[in-house]
Each structure stands twice: as C-alpha cells, then as structure tokens.
C-alpha cells in the first residue's frame, strides 16, 4: 500500500541548435500539456507533479509557458488527481498562487520546493525559508535538495514544519562514493526525521492528511493529525 505520485513534467527540454538557435538541437524534447498529462489521465494516481514555470535548467531551458501550465492544471483537475506544485524558484510560487486564485487548484494546495537545480533556487536554509514564507496560509508543503544537499534539505524542511522528499531522481549516493538504492535513502531519511522529533506517516495517514482520493475505495480521505510524509 503506497501513495502514487507520477512525474508529469517531462517533454520540456529545449537545447538550442548550435547552427540555428531558433530551432531545437539534439536532446530537445517538447511535449504539449495533453501529452504530459496522458499517463496521469490513464492511470489516475493519487498525485501528479505540476511544474510551475520555465527556468534555466543546467545547460538547457525547461519550457513551460503560463498558458501551457493553465491547460495542464485544468487537465489534472478534471481527472480528480491532486497536483503537487513543483516550484524551482520564487516566481514559480507566485504563479502557483495565481493558479489557486483562478480556481485551477482546489482545496489545500500541496507545494514541493525544488532546491539546488542550476540555475533555479539554491539549496540553502535562507532560500527554503523565503519560498516557504510566500506560500498560502492553507498550503501543505515539502522540499528537497539534489545531490549532497538531499539529506540536509530534508532535515531543514522538517525543522521548518514541512514534509520531506528523497529518492534516486534527486541523488544517487548514500554517502560520498557509495551508490544508494531508493530503499536506503528512504530508511536514512526516516531515521533523520525521527531523530528530529517527527515521524513518517503511513500511506493511509498521508491520504487523510493531504485529502487524497483513496484508490482502494474511490473516496476522498479526511483530515488527520500526522508527522512527516
């Protein structure tokens, strides 16, 4: 019994062609909002990501114009899936709040603060705090850092009252020179969370806390008290 959260932000990679910068070169992969949403609409997970803007992503550009984002949000909303609002910079938090004002995000929003991607928001306590302070009062939120920042940012999120995310998508190593498995990263983060005085929620508690659709019953779970998801 696990809570499923599908990444739905693929197909946004733009790498200008070396000879003609008006065209995408090798490695460019652009999908429409409908194409990004297709696996979500077919599989209907409890959660899916909604990347909340464009940014310089390392040496490429991640393309996600405002109108594309609005269209994607409508598709997620119509499918009855809860959007995890992935924010790689302060402007993304601003636009996610705008989606909520426009009625495209229902209920208590769930934000994911994505830290350490060059050249988005830096993975440090000051940046996480600044982004957290811009969230709506009714927001649930989590944060992560990439690479060596993964565990420090997980701890920082707990200390600031948020949830934590870890996994191989963001970090390959358990420690310097030692490759990790997802299970090892989760176990390490769980110990860290508990040592900070919080605890990891069960899948049932997570569904209740975030008011997710229960795939076993089809109903929306209610609110509950809990620790860190």
Automatic annotation (TrEMBL):
Cofactors demanded by this protein: Zn(2+)
Secretion signal span: none
Gene Ontology molecular functions: 3-keto-5-aminohexanoate cleavage activity; metal ion binding
Keyword GTP-binding annotated: no
Record carries keyword Zinc: yes
Coiled coil region boundaries: none
This protein's name: Uncharacterized conserved protein, DUF849 family
Organism of this sequence: Vreelandella aquamarina
